[in-house]
Amino acid sequence: MTPHLTPGPPIKVSSRREGAVTILDLVGDITLFNSPEIRKTLLSLLRDQRVPQLLVNMTDVKYVDSSGIASLVEGLKVSRDHSARFALYGLSKPAKTVLELTHLLRVFEVYENEKEALAAVHSSDNKLAPSAGEGAS
After folding, report:
1. Exposure string over 76-93, b if 16+ CB within 10 A, otherwise e
2. Are strands 85-89 and 53-60 parallel, antiparallel or unpaired?
């Protein structure tokens, strides 16, 4: 008999605007069960609404599994396809560890908090967004 997987608590996904910046607030764990919802929201913001700058607030995300990482990577790829800025902030220790283990921490633009992320966005408004991958494309 196979073990029954329970989906766990649902994730809360909402977006808000801070000037020209769109912030996607995530609350809960990002797992196989809810990463499709996150992927759909990311793609809608980047492809359909064509937001120029998207910050993903992960302050209230304690855990991210591989499907969640895949959704974030897809968001990053689409943002690059559309010349949009894509950054993460507020990573918990476990989320940061997963990105380190998958060698993706340096691929994403990552900030400690919202204030730092917004300051970085505003300081480069008149410049091309820097690549956090340092030479990786």
Report:
1. bebbbeeebbbbbbbbbe
2. parallel
Q: Answer whether residue 135 is part of any domain.
A: no
CATH number at residue 43: 3.30.750.24
> What is the number of structural domains in the chain?
1
DSSP 11: P
pLDDT single digits (tens) 26-73: 999 999 999 999 999 999 999 999 999 999 999 999 999 999 999 999
pTM of the model: 0.85
Q: So what's the pLDDT on residue 5?
A: 52
Distance CA 50, CA 65 (A): 27
